[in-house]
Write a structure and sequence with these properties.
The protein is of the alpha/beta class and 439 residues long. The chain has two domains: 349 residues, Alpha-Beta Barrel (TIM Barrel), CATH 3.20.20; 64 residues, no CATH class. It is built from 15 helices and 14 strands. The longest helix is centred in the middle third of the chain and has 19 residues. The structure holds flavin mononucleotide (FMN). The site of flavin mononucleotide has 21 residues, from β10 and α10.
Length: 439
C-alpha cells in the first residue's frame, strides 16, 4: 500500500468455521447465535484499530455441516446490531449474487451503510454449494461460468442502483415545500441477461458513496470478477509465492479493465497460532491436530467438494479418483486439493488431515508471526491479512502480534479517516451522474 501500512480484518465466525472448533475450551458453544459475543469481539477489534470485521455465510446445510454453519445469525441483521455498538470499524457482510435479487441487496447494504455512517462492505459470492439452489426455487445450481456471468451483471445493477440519488439531491426545505431535486434522482432501467430492474433505489448513498466491495474469486471467472469489481480481494494462498502470483494476476486484470491496480487491496486469510515461544506455539498446533479425528477431517474435506461424502472410500488407499466432483463448487480449492494429493501421492487420510489444519507461516512466537506478516507484505504478496479463529485465537493475534507490527511502523496507531473506504485506501466511489455532469 502507498502508506506502507498493513490492512487487518478479522473473520468473526462464532464457534469457528471448522466442525471441531466449537469444542475448544475457550469457546462459548452458543457463540454463533449470540449477538453479545459478536458485539464484544467487534468492539475489541475496533479498540485494536482493525480495518474491518468479516461475516461469512452460506445458504444450505446438511446434518453433516459444521456447527457454525448449522445455526448462525444472518450477516446483515447481525451487522446492523454491531453497527449500533461501534463507530469506526468496517462491517463486511457476505451475500450471494446467485439467488438474491439485486434490488433488495442494494437496499439492505445501503441501509447498513447509512446505519453505520459509511462502514458497510459486501463480500460478493456465487454460492458453490449444490443444495443452495433447492432452497431458492431453482432445481439445479448453475455452472461456475454462468454463476460468475450472473454475478458480474448483479454487481453492475447494484452499483447502478446505489447511484440513484446524487449526494446533494435532498433539499428538505419545509418553507418552499421542496423535498428533493428531481434532476438528481435517476432510474436505472436495466434489462440484461439475468435481471430486469428499473429503479430508482429508495435510499440515498452514505458518505463513503458505495459499500466496499470484497471478492475472493480464484477461478478464471472469479479472478475476472474480482479484478473488475473488487476493492478488496482475498484468498487463502498456501505460500507467499502463490499469494504473489494471485495478486500480480488480479492487478494486471484490473489494469486491463482500466482500474488503478494500486487501489486494489489483496488480503490473505489465515489462522495465526501464536504463543510466547515457538515451542509453545508448536504445542498448541499439535493440540489442535489432536482435536481433529479422521471422521471430522474427512467431513470438512467434503465441504469443498459440495458436501461430497468421502467416507465411502478406504482412508488408507490413495486419494480416490472422483472425476469432476467439485469442479462447479469451490473449484480452485478442490482442484488444488486433488492436485496436491496426486503429486504427493497422499492417501485419503493424509489429504484430509493436511487440509484440516494446514501448517502455515503463521505458527510460532509473536515475533515469528510478525516477521512472516512483514515478509509477505514487503515482498508485495499481500496488502494485509484477514485473521480467522477456526484454529488460532484472534485475541492472541491482537494482543501479541499487532503491537509488534505497530512498533515496526507497519500498522496504524489510530483510524486516519471517517469512512471504511477511506481507511482501507481503496478508490472513491463517486456518483456516476454527478461525474457525468462534470460537477
Ligand atoms: C477466506 C474466504 C472466505 C470465503 N467466504 C465465503 C462465504 O462466506 N460464502 C461463500 O459462499 N463463499 C465464500 N468463499 C468462497 C469464494 O467466494 C470463492 O468461491 C472461492 O474463493 C473459490 O473461488 P472460485 O469460486 O472462483 O472457484 C470464501 C473464500 C475465502 C478464501
Amino acid at each position: 500500500m502507498r502508506d506502507g501500512k498493513l490492512r487487518i480484518g478479522l473473520i468473526l465466525d462464532g464457534v469457528g468455521g471448522s466442525n471441531w472448533s466449537w469444542r475448544r475450551p475457550h469457546i462459548n458453544p452458543r457463540a454463533s447465535v449470540d449477538i453479545q459475543n459478536y458485539i464484544r469481539e467487534a468492539k475489541r477489534a475496533e479498540e485494536a484499530k482493525a480495518d474491518f470485521i468479516f461475516i461469512a455465510d452460506t445458504i444450505h446445510i446438511t446434518p453433516e455441516s459444521s456447527p457454525h454453519f448449522l445455526n448462525r445469525l444472518e450477516p446483515l441483521t447481525l451487522l446492523g446490531a454491531v453497527a449500533a455498538h461501534t463507530s469506526r470499524i468496517g462491517l463486511v457482510a457476505t451475500i450471494t449474487t446467485s439467488y438474491m435479487e439485486p434490488f433488495p441487496v442494494a437496499r439492505q447494504l445501503a441501509s447498513l451503510d447509512l446505519i453505520s455512517d459509511g462502514r458497510a462492505g459486501w463480500n460478493i459470492v456465487t454460492s458453490g454449494l449444490e443444495g443452495a439452489a433447492r432452497n431458492h426455487s431453482h432445481e439445479k445450481m448453475m455452472n461456475i461460468e454462468d454463476r460468475y456471468r450472473k454475478a458480474t451483471e448483479h454487481v453492475e445493477v447494484v452499483k447502478g442502483l446505489w447511484d440513484s440519488w446524487e449526494d446533494d439531491a435532498f433539499i428538505r426545505d419545509k418553507v418552499s415545500g421542496v423535498f428533493f431535486d428531481r434532476s438528481k434522482l435517476h432510474a436505472l432501467n436495466h434489462k440484461g441477461e439475468f435481471f430486469l430492474v428499473d429503479g430508482p433505489l429508495n435510499i440515498a448513498r452514505s458518505r463513503q458513496g458505495h459499500p466496499v466491495l470484497f471478492q475472493a474469486g480464484a477461478s478464471g471467472g472469479g479472478r475476472d470478477l474480482a479484478a473488475m469489481t473488487g476493492d478488496a480481494i482475498f484468498g487463502i494462498p498456501k505460500t507467499i509465492e502463490a499469494a504473489k502470483e494471485y495478486y500480480d494476476d488480479v492487478r494486471q486484470r484490473a489494469a486491463a479493465y482500466g482500474r488503478d491496480p494500486d487501489k486494489i487491496v489483496f488480503m490473505a486469510a489465515m489462522d495465526a497460532i501464536v504463543a510466547e515461544t515457538d515451542e509453545e506455539a508448536e504445542r498448541k498446533y499439535q493440540e489442535a491436530c489432536e482435536f481433529v479425528s479422521y471422521e471430522e477431517a474427512v467431513k470438512w474435506l467434503g465441504f469443498f467438494f459440495s458436501s461430497y461424502d468421502f467416507t465411502q472410500y478406504d482412508p488408507d488407499a490413495p486419494f480416490p479418483d472422483i472425476g469432476d466432483v467439485g469442479n462447479h463448487s469451490y473449484s480452485s480449492l478442490s482442484d488444488y486439493i486433488k492436485r496436491i494429493a496426486r503429486e504427493e501421492k497422499l492417501t485419503l487420510r493424509q489429504t484430509a488431515k493436511r487440509f484440516a489444519i494446514p501448517r502455515t507461516d503463521f505458527i510460532g512466537s509473536a515475533e515469528k508471526v510478525a516477521d512472516a506478516c512483514e515478509r509477505w507484505f514487503r515482498q508485495g504478496a499481500v496488502a494485509g491479512f484477514m485473521v480467522g479463529s477456526s484454529v488460532g485465537k484472534v485475541d492472541d493475534f491482537l494482543d501479541m502480534v499487532l503491537p509488534i507490527l505497530r512498533k515496526r511502523g507497519l500498522f496504524r496507531e489510530d483510524y486516519e479517516y471517517e469512512t471504511f473506504r477511506e481507511n482501507l485506501g481503496v478508490s472513491a466511489a463517486l456518483n456516476r451522474y454527478t461525474l457525468a455532469r462534470g460537477a
